[in-house]
Amino acid sequence: MKNNRVAWRHWLVIAAIFLAGLVMQLIALPRPYINSQPYRTEGRNFIENEIMESKEALTISEPSAVISVLERLGDKERHVAVGASLVDTSRWRVKIKVEDIQASSQTELFDVSRHSDLLFARQYFRLGSILSLVIIPTDSDALCYYFLELDRMRCMNN
Amino acid sequence: MIYNFRLKNSDLVEFNSEHCKIIISKNQGEPEELTLARAESRILELLLMEPGAICSREAILEFAWDDRVVSAGSLNQSIFMLRNVLGDGKDHEIVITVPRRGYRFNSDHMVAPSEAVEAPLDEPQQASPVAPAPSPDNRQGIGTAVILGYLAATVFAVLSIWRLVAWYEPTRELHVAVIKQGELSISAVGKNEQEVNTLKTDISNLNLPTENIKGEVFISRKGSRMNMSCIRTTGHTYNFEFQLQNEQLINMLKKCAGE
User: Fold this and answer.
1) What 3-state class would DSSP assign to B192?
2) Maximum distance among all Cα pairs of chain A, rounded to whole angstroms
3) Which residues contact A111 (CB under 8 A, 6 or more apart)?
4) pLDDT tens-place string over residues B223-232
5) Any stretches that span the bilayer, and where are they (chain B) (predicted)?
6) What is the structure's pLDDT at B211?
């Protein structure tokens, strides 16, 4: 019957819309990072006449992430490992929730009374705190991000 | 499918669309059985599928005559015949003409199921449901189910598109201003656009001798403290944090990018 054919055409269009939506839902969206890929970097923190050397690593293995920092100031060393869960991910942002902190020492290597700004920035690394890493576009494979809460920028290579 | 409705004189009509028959149960006397022409039966069936709803002339032609091409006169003739059978030839109160749009069945003449059961008819089928739910696909090719289907598909599609848009939506909390100097790219980064532009101006005013400096450098400033992140041409990355009063930006840039 002619109008049955008309109805079928409608259902075909509806099915096509659903299919397109399904494809869009299932499509693998590009992550700003490579999953389970350890990113590493080195850094220097110039504190007056001293230089605090650091090595940092970030590994995002969905749905969790680990940030490790090894700091060295003179002959003193401190290691901090932060375990976090991914709260939200998009092309330009990764939101993490701090779930675990392991530090080799509770004492900072630098003089906290003289460098309170440094200390305060680190206060955000507390259990349960949510941190936003905003991705900075680069021309290479390096992962550059800015911690909104810490005002800390990092570029890391894999 | 059985449909029940009343004529203007309150006689109860049972219409069997499958057999193209109508049985008129009169208030007095024996029920009268009539056989409709196929086209008239189909027209009545289409109108009764959704009483009160307007059926266009095109939809009626399509439904009543299937694929056959017939003139508008055939439709007028069938409507005329149908109205005569239903005693509606004069004032068109049952099959109503909607000017320039089509026809509709007056839903006031429909009979509720309970009423049909109570009606003084001998026929056992009279308890059949009145105005059964129309098969939307059979009416004008588009019915409630199709509309709902379109709605659901649209909502699903919008959600899917929204997922993509949300995924790629750039963040507004961070601003980046890029300065390209030869093979060196310096980006001022910060949470405030004005601060970023000021930082960009400050960097531009340094007149950096960039011939030996290559790679990508990102600089942010928080108070007097600078954060510099570099991607060297080798692919390695370095991050410096320093006090601007103590260190010169150009020296830090050379160290970070690796002259």
Assistant:
1) coil
2) 90
3) none
4) 878 899 999 9
5) 142-165
6) 65
Could you tell me which chain A residue has the CA closest to the CA of B172? A134
Structure tokens at B227: 């954060």
As for the ipTM of the complex, it is 0.85
Q: What is the pLDDT of residue B127?
A: 39
Nearest of B95, B89, B76, B91 to residue B15 by alpha carbon: B95
Nearest to A65 by CA among A79, A80, A86: A86
CATH class for the region spanning B2-147: mainly alpha
H helix or E strand, kind and range, residue B231: strand B225-231
To the nearest 5 percent, what fractions of chain A are helix, strand and coil? Answer: 20, 50, 30
Q: pLDDT digits over B39-50, tens only?
A: 899 999 999 988
Residue with tokens 């009979």: B111
Q: Which residues of A touch B242 (CB under 8 A)?
A: 45-46
Q: Is B255 helix (H, G, I), strand (E, B) or coil?
A: helix
Q: Do A44 and B241 touch (CB under 8 A)?
A: yes
Domain ranges of chain B: 2-147, 175-257
- Residue A136's nearest CA partner among B231, B33, B101, B62 is B231
CB B141 within 8 A of CB A10: yes
Are B253 and B213 in contact, with CB atoms under 8 Å apart? yes
The pair phi, psi for residue B65, each rounded to 5°, is -115, 10
- Please give the model's pTM, rounded to 2 decimal places: 0.62
Cβ <8 Å between A44 and B247: no
Which residue type, as a one-letter code, is found at position B78? Answer: S
Which of B130-139, B165-174, B205-214: highest mean pLDDT? B165-174
Q: Given phi > 0 = left and psi -120 to 50 = alpha, else beta, which region is B29? A: left
Q: What is the mean pLDDT of residues B157-181?
A: 88
Residue A147, pLDDT > 80, answer: yes
First to last CA, chain A: 63
| Domains in chain A: boundaries | 1-29, 38-156
Q: How many CB pairs under 8 A join A and B?
A: 170
